[in-house]
Every structure is written in C-alpha cells, then in structure tokens.
Amino acid sequence: MIKAILIFNNHGKPRLSKFYEHYNEDTEQQIIRETFHLVSKRDENVCNFLEGGMLIGGSDYKLIYRHYATLYFVFCVDSSESELGILDLIQVFVETLDKCFENVCELDLIFHVDKVHHILAEMVMGGMVLETNMNEIITQVDTQNKMEKSEAGIAGAPARAVSAVKNMNLPEMPRNINIGDISIKVPNLPSFK
Amino acid sequence: MSDVMEKTLTALPSLLSLDSQPGSAKLSANSKLGNLIRGITELTSKHEEEKLIQRELSSIKEQVSSPNTTMRQMKELMVRTIYCEMLGYEASFSYIHAIKLAQQGNVLEKRVGYLAVSLFLNESHELLLLLVNTVLKDLQSTNLIEVCMALTVVSQMFPKDMIPAILPLVEEKLSHSKEIIRRKAVLALYKFYLIAPNQVQHIHNKFRKALCDKDPGVMSASLHIYLQLIQENPEGYKDLTMSFVTILKQVVMGKLPMDFNYHCVPAPWLQIHLLRILSLLGKNDQSMSEIMYEILDESLQRAEMNHNITYAILYECVKCIYTIHPKPDLLEKAAKCIGSFVLSPRINLKYLGLKALTYVVQQDPKLVLQHQMTIIECLDHPDLIIKRETLELLFRITNAQNVTVIVEKMLDFLQVSEDNHTTIDLVGKVAELAEKYAPDNEWFIETMNTVFSVGGDVMQPDIPNSFLKLLLEGFDSVEEDKKLRLFAVNSYVSLLQGEPSRLPQRFLQVICWVLGEYAHLNEDVEPDAVLRLLAKLLDMKSSTSETKSWVLIAMTKLCSGGAAFSVAHEVSETYGSSMDTMLRQRAQELQHLSQDSALQSRVFPRSGSQEPVEVDSSLSFLDGFVSEALAAGAAPYKPPHQRQEEMSRSKVLSLEPYGLSLPISMSSCSVTDRQSPTLLSMSSSLSGDSAELSHKASSTTLKLDGVTRVWGREGYLVQREPVQEAAQVEAPSPLRSPRQQGDEDSPHSQTPTPTPTPESEQEKQQLASSLFVGLASPSSVSLMGKSEQTSQRFRRKARIQDKPPTSGEQINNLPPGGAADLLLDSNVSSELVSSLEQTHRNSLDLTANGACDAELPDGDVKEIKTPLSTDDSVLAAGLSPHEGPDRPKDLCLTSYLPAELSGLSHSEITLLCTNQSLDLSACHVQKEDCVELVVFIKNSSDSAAHQLQMQISCEEIEVSCVCDSPVEELKSHSVTVCQYFLTVKRPSVCFDLVGMVYYQLAAGSLQTAQFLYKLPLTSFIRPLAVSTEEYGTMWLAFSHDTKQNLPLMKDEREPLTATLNLLKTKLQLHVVEIIGEEGIVACCLRPDQQCLLHCRMHAGMLAAWLRSPVPDLPDSLLYHCQRALQER
Fold this sequence. Notes:
By secondary structure, chain A is an alpha+beta fold. Chain A has one domain: Beta-Lactamase (2-Layer Sandwich). Chain A is 42% helix and 18% strand. Chain A is built from 6 helices and 7 strands. In chain A, the strands form 2 sheets. A 5-stranded antiparallel beta sheet of chain A has the order 2-1-5-4-3, sandwiched between helices. Chain A has a two-stranded antiparallel ribbon with strand order 6-7. In chain A, strand 1 and strand 2 form a beta hairpin. The longest helix of chain A is centred in the C-terminal third of the chain and has 20 residues, at 134-153. Chain A is globular. The two termini of chain A are 38 Å apart. The longest helix of chain B is centred in the middle third of the chain and has 24 residues, at 677-700. In chain B, helix 7 (129-139) packs antiparallel against helix 8, helix 15 runs antiparallel to helix 16 and helix 26 (478-497) packs across helix 27 (505-518). In chain B, 39% of the residues are buried. The chains are: A alpha+beta, B alpha+beta. Chains A and B meet through strand 2, helix 1, strand 3, helix 2 and helix 4 of A and helix 2, helix 4, helix 6, helix 8 and helix 10 of B. Chain B: Subunit of novel type of clathrin- or non-clathrin-associated protein coat involved in targeting proteins from the trans-Golgi network (TGN) to the endosomal-lysosomal system.
C-alpha cells in the first residue's frame, strides 16, 4: 500500500500532498516537514530509499523518492511494495506529467494542483497502484480534458450540454488481447462434501 | 445620491467578477489563484503568510456561503481552498460546500468536488454521511466518468457502516462492459475487504472472475486482492497456483500487447505482483514449488540487466526462490544474482543486495562469507542508509565470537545517527545482543552503559527493565552474579563521580536502583559516600521528579549506617515538604526508616531479595479499617460500572440516547437510522486500533528469527530423515545458536588463510575475519583461525530462556491439519460427518437457496472446501511418508483419553507433528466450565525418551496444566497424555496454541518438537441463562459493541425463531426471549465474560447488535454467527 504521496520543492514548500491514510491536519504538516528534512539533506549520489521517519508509521514503512530539478517526489509505502517498482512508478508519473503539461515545470504543478491530482488519481487509487501504463493514463486524462473544452463551448445551451455529456463515454482502449492465451480457468471446485 | 452612486460603482467590479461570462470566469479565478500564489511567494515571514491566507480564506468563506455563487465559481473557489489546505490552513467551513459541489455540479465541477472531499475529509468524518447518497446516485449514472469518480472516492474513504448500502452497486460493476470500470470496482472491493472483511466474504468467487477477466488490467488489479488473501491464508488458494504460473508465463513470454511494455519489459509491475504471490504459495510446500521452478528460471533468464525495472523483477525472483522449497540450480543462479546486486556500483542495487543477503543469511551463510569484503566496505559507506542496512545484516549473523566487533560498529553508528527511529531500533538490538552473547562482565556493563546513555529517554522502556531483571534474577552461578553486580556498582559510582548531569534520566534511575540494591557488595565504598553522590543528583536541575523518587528509594535502602544518618536527615527535611506528593511520601519513608534500622531491614531485606513476595490480592488486611469506616457512616464501595449506572439514573438529564436505554425498546432503532455517526465510528475505530496494535506487536518480532532450518551446506535438508541419518543432522552447524554449540564443544579446525593482500587491505581483512568468525561451519572455520569457546555467558535461568516461539514462521513446518480444527468447532467427529452431509445437500439444493442469494453456497464451498480436505493437503505438503500409516493409529489414541474425560464428547484427535522419535496428537474436550486440551505424546522410536516436558502457550488463552511435573521416562512405543485447562484471556476468532516439547533421547542431547493447535472461539462459548430483566441491566453495563446485518433464514415459517435456534444449536447460545420481530440471546466464555446479542428482523435481514464487557468478543462472536448462518 502507498500511504502518502508528497511533492515539495527544494525549499520544502509543498506542491502536492495526498494521504491515503488519515492523519490530522497538524500531523500531515509535520510529516511533510519531517520528510523534507530527511530527504533534503541527502546527497545526490546516495540511494533513493529511506527507512521511514517516526511519524508515518515505524519500521515497516519506507520513503522512496526522486529528485527532479527543483522538485522532490516522495512516495511513502509499506513493505508490500517493491522498492524499485515504486521508483519507476515515480518516473512514470513524472513522464506523464511532462506529456500532459508539455515540458512540465514547478509552476504547472502550482497553478494546476487539481489537474495533477486528477492525473494521480488515474495512477494510484486508494493507495493501490491502478495503472502503470503511461498511454492509458494520458488517454483517460485527455478524455476528461476534452470534456472540459467541449463543455466550455456548450455552456450556453445547458440542455444540449447535459445530453452531450450523458452520451459521452470513455474511449474503449484498443487492447487486443488474445483471450485464448490468458484463459485462466476457474478451477472446477468439487461440490461440497 | 452621489454617495449611493459611488457605492454602486465600487461594488460593480466585484459583482462582475462574481458573475461574469463562463469563459472569463475561468481566467479571472485563475488569476486569483495566481495572485494568491504570487502573494505568498513574495512574502518573507511565516507570519505574513499566515495573515495573507487568513484573509484569503475569509474572502473565500464569504463567497461560498453567498447564494449567488454559481457552481462554476464554486469550483474555482474549491481549487483555491485545496491550495490553502495543502499549506496547512484549515478551511473546515468549505467541507460542506465541497460535498454540495460533488452533489450538484456538472461532471467537471463534480470532479473537483469529489477531489476536494477526498482531500479534506476522512472516513470517520461525520459529514461523509452526506456524501453517501451522491455516491449512490453516481454509481447508477449512465455517464461513465461519474461512475469512475464515485468508485475513486469510495476507495479513498467510505464510512465502514455504510458499505452495505453501496456494495451491491459496486459488485454489479464487476461485470461492466468497460474495463476501466471493472478495474476500479475491483480495487474498491479490495478496499472494502481491508476495512470490513466480513462484509465482502460472499463475493470471493467474483474475485475469481476478475482474475480471469479478459482484460489484463482488471486481472492485475485483482492481484491486489489475492496477494492479501493469500497472505492471510495460503492454504486456501493453492488451487490457483497453476493459474498464476500460467499468467506469469504468458507475461514473461511477451504475450501481452505492446501497450503493457515498460522499457521493453512486459508488464513489470504485474510480474512483481505475481512473483510475490508465488513465493507465498510455494513457501514450505514442495509440490507447489515444483510447479514454479520452470517459470522462475525463465524469468531469471529473460530479465536482462539493462534497466532498473528488470532489477526489480530479479529481486522479487531471488526472494521467491529463497522462500519456496529450494532447488539447487535455481539457488545457484539466485546467489549469483544477489552477488551482482551487492557488487553493483549503483547504490540502489547495493541496498537491495544487502536486503537480500539479510533475507537469506540464515539459510545460506556461505553467501555472506563470499561477499564479506563488500560488506566491510559498506560499513564505511557515506550513505547512512546503506550503513544501517549492513548493520542489520551483521545483527543477523552475530554470535558469541563476533559480538564485540559488531556491537562496536553499531555503537559507532549510533553516535552519528540523528534519527530517533533508528536510534530506538538499534539501541534495542545492541541490548539484545549484549544480553545474549556478552563475553564478560566488564564488556556487558560498559555496553549497557553506552546503550543507556545513547538511547537515553527515547529507547523502549523494556530495555532498562530487562537489564534490572537480569541483575536481580542472576544466572546459574552465585559467584558470577556477585561479580557482575559488583562491577556494575563500581562502574556507576565512578560515573556519578564524573558528570552525572549529562546522563539521561532513565540511566540515572537504573543507577539509583543498582546502587540501592547492591552498593553494599563493595566494601571499599562507604555507604555515606554513595549517599552523598545520590544526594548530588537531587540537587541537579535536570533531574525530573520521577528520578528524584528513585534516588530517595535508593537512599532509603542505603541509610542504615550511623554516618549516613545526617545526609538522610537533611534530604528528608528538604523533601518532606515538597509539593510533589510522591516525593513527599518517599522522603517520609526515608526519614522513618533511617531512624529505625530494625524496621528498615525488615522492609528491605538484603539477602532475601530473591524470595517472592506474597501479595494478598483480596486486601483482607484492610477489613478492619473498612468495617470501622462503615460503622462511622461511610458509604459502601461500589464497583465503577454500578456507580456509572446509578449516576445515569439519578441524573435529571439522561445523556444516553433513548434507543440505548433498554434492549426491548430498541425496535425504534433500525439499522439505517443509527444514533449518531460519531458514536458508531468511535466503536469501529476502537476495534480498528486494537487490530493495529496487535499487528504492530507482531511485526516487531524479527521476521527471520527461528526460520525453520531447511538448509544445510549441501543444500536442502530433508525434514524428516530416517533414524539412522539422525546423527548427521545433529552434527554441529553454524546455524545453531552458540549455546547449542557450546553444549557440544565442537572441535574447530583451520582453513587456509586467503591469499596475502597489500598492507592497506590488511586492516579490512582483519575486520572481516573478526566479523565473520563463527559463520562458517566448524570444520572450516574463520580466517584468523581464532577458535574460541562459545558458551553463552549470560545464560538466564531456564524459565526465562525457554520461551515458546512467538513468531508465526517458527511453526510453519507443522502439518496443515491444524487448519482443519478451525472448522471442526466443537463437534465430535460423527457430528462433523453429519454436518458435512448436510452442507453437501445444501450445495446441491442450489435452487432452494437461490431465491435469497445464489452466490452464497458457491462461495461457501470454496471457503470450506480447503481446510476440510486436509488429507489432500497433508499429502500435498509433502510431509513424511509415514504420515499415511499414522492415521489409523490416531484412532486408537482414544483409549488413552483420561477416564474422567472419556464420558464427554471430544474433538477428532489430530496428528500435530511427528519427528523421528515422537508423534504428537491432540484433541480438545468441552467441559461444563472450561475447555480441556489433551495432548498425546507417543514415542515412536526404539529407545526411551527421558525428561519429557511440555510447554503450551497462547497470547489470548490462559493455559494451566493439570499436572506440571515432567514425565521421567517414556518407553519406546508407549503413549503419555498431558492435560491442560484452557480459559480465554482475550477473545479472538480463532486461537493458535503453540506448544513445545523438550525431551532427551538416550544419547543425552536435548531435543525439541514444536506444534500448533488451532481452536475456534466456538469451543469456549457456553450458554448464559439469564432472565430478560437481568439481560436488561447487563446490557447497560457493557461498553463494547458491534452491529451488523446477518442473513435470515427466510424460507422458514418463522424466520427469526428458526435463525436463532440454528445459532443456539451451532454456537451453544442461550435464547433468552423472542418478542415479535425481536429476540435476545446471551452467552458467555467464562462467567465474567458475557456477550449479549440483540436481534431484529429488518428488511429481510437480521440486524444483530452485540454487546460485551470484553473488548474483542462482539466482533469475534459476530464472525462465527455469520459463519454459522452461511454454512447452514
């Protein structure tokens, strides 16, 4: 499980914070501060893993982070996640941001906090990795953005807009899977004694 | 007039900005957010930022509450609020508006509304109830984006009690035509499973469908669920192993569309998931492991080292190979892999390499020896994390020979580490090692001194406690004890003579205690000199009042001599009038006892400190005082719950909701209209906390400790070897604890020292040899050729050391038969057969039940089938070949049942464990007042076993032995019986009894056998006969409760009566009364552990409400009720 995803800049200013477990407001701020404190004092040529600080939950937890230019991306995860896997997930996240914002920079994250959250929601849902495929994430986000544009255009005709929205469906991703190959048979359970 | 004009004019811009055209609204709001951010960045102090944001928030507040604000503007306002909240400023006024936005906005506004809700609220927030309806509506929407949003918010947070309301809708989505919806639904259901496992029990077979989904995305989402389920119960999903292997095979072979590739690696995250699942399934299971070998080999080969993500897969592969039943050539490859990790210049890989080494070290210490120089380098690595990981590895390989070097390294690290968390963890480890392997007194005391001064006040409190206990209880030799204590005293006296103000409080308290108890051992130091040193502590500003009372107690113990009197007198004068009552009391004691040396020696006997003090727990010595007080007109004592009850009665305003006052009147309180959300969530969060606590407690145990030894230097050791090979297994090996090694005093021979290295390397070589000494097998020992006797110095007395195993992994070599008992419940074997037949009939009779829930029987079959087919799984687990012949033998064990129990019904006698000499079987007998466990020990070898001693323990159960003396001799092929009374300390759904048998064979070596016995809660449940009135008063007094809807036997003529009667017969509950649609039922575990159940028919379900004075009882009982009703 992913417990929290934090993005802050080199000065510790939070740019995005998403907690998948409940902490109260003060604790959340304290976690952000402590995480920044832990991460920022590490050199560039050390490993990207940190055994969790006190706050986020003891020895089972781990901070996995990457540092891009002015921003730190930190994922706090428990032992059920693969360290290197998460490290690459951060990469996927950043690459996705880069595609969605076209050369993403810190300002994009500041002014479009909501959009970043929406992108993140397509990747991680309730602390579980939902999608790791960048194209798929972008398609989902694009659909929603398209809806935004078309809606701005049809705002004058609410009735039409509603019907348009209703009829708009998510695109079916062409995922041609050879079903024959992946056919996992539900084991035929013997009827109960 | 002009005034009015002016006002209108100034108001215009703001009006415009509030209600301008849609296109520009976005811009203006954006610039508003921009303005805010720009404003913040321009500020220099935190204080200014606070002021600015407060101003911003109050303007937002004004706008959101204005009725003219459109949803579109609301959306922009929410984004701004999200920003402020992220910076840590609370905007609770906006929460309700976020919910409103999610409710009323169009799709885009709704999206922001949901986002704000998921960022602002948590699952126990009361406002969340307002969202339930919105979620319900959106789940039914035809717009897929709305459905997606609803599923997302549901998996982020949803009130536990409201899950039943939306569960059917989410379930429905599992068969939706769009894969993204199915995927999100699977994850949402997983989330439900995590927070309320009971409620999704019935959809387990739908999870299977998700696993077989034609879309790989949905399938990979379902792996989340399976990973969790298999972790909890690996036995139940062995049948899926083949499916997982097939999936992995297809992924590895690249059968998935290119879409799923990441850096040319096919679906790496999916592979990682599958490998984790496989390692869980293959653990201790040869037949399952064999299915996996081929694909593991394939994965190892396919994963070319070219990208980070392939290393991630490799790492999982290696872990899997070392977890499952071993195969030599795979191990070799895995070892090579670990090598390349450790030697890699990339630090991340080095870190994982060290982790992998730590994981495998107990199975394969040779591998560590191979990489010893790299490990030494890692010890000096600039990255503290790498250093720490290395220490963790060293901790695992510590033995009596290398303990001094390793502890020294750890203490060095502690000096530089600033992280509290690391300090606590490491200090605990040092203390543990010091206690286990200390080579001599001086070293032990000095190490502990460092531990106390570094660990200071953050360390776990049990470290000083166990240190003091160790000093107090001593070891086997009186002379040694005295030396150790004397050394401690000397060391502490010199510490106090130095600068005691620098020492942490906890350390000072330890010093005080030791000086108080043992200062007399050192005849060179005058008691009044010690007293003066202690008095100095009292004057220190930094001393807390807790430390001061420790000082005063120590002084009280020491003050017998005449010269000491003046110091004692002075101190007691000062503190006799302290504001702190504790200090004042201690000072008074000091004053009195220092004047009366006869009394002092009675209160603090010097020599008799080891005799147990008898405690009169009934406080009978107070009887006289009580009766006097009563005669003088004092009110009689009432226990707290009685007081509370009376108070609530006498109060003018009843603070309890009416629905709670009497169970009879509860009809007014249906499940849907609950009293108050906060109250409910409180109880749920309470139970959640306790689960978390127990989880934490269990996770603190070392995961690798006591892993069964399946490894030898030659590879896998067959678990149960024929007797003639036993000697070979007994041969000393590096894996055994040094204590055992010491027992045998194994001969150490030399290995050729490695090829000479340059001077600079010399030092490292030396370090290596001192670190890894004792790791190699005795026949090919250490590089330095140092062969030291390895007896454990601080050998605690038997009762402390012979602790039964607590970690789950220690018992995993047990036959899975234990699992069967889970379902055997209280039934005798004959009953079992009949119930099996009954269930069978049920599952055939699908159409009859189909009306209420067609899925139910199916799900049942799947669940129950596995544990009951023990015979299969026993064979599958590849246990000993003489398992088969043993089975019939079990039956004749019945004749060994003690006479007084033979009349009572007993559970089936199950074979728990066999080794070359003993067969252990057990059953349990349900008596009127308790459960009795009967363990049959059969000596199957040809020689007699001696000094048989059995220990059984369980965290939740109190185990008391009928007769505690060890069996002196058990002749070959004879049987002895041990009986234990079991009473529940803490209720749980199922109890694991862990047992350990110690015995000696003719050879004289101490042997052990472990076993695990599972007992369900139902064995302990007894009917509780109470009247309705008694039930009423009890109901009020009990504080722990839980509620849930249970299935009702709708097809019966009187559903409620039929259902309750079923519960009565299955779980032995007592039905107190049934009035109309309500019924009350009572049961107990012990007379003081009651549990009351109130049932009401509601909307075709049985709304059950359980209450008990015991914390976990309602939840556990509810589980069994649910089970019983589903199994019928």
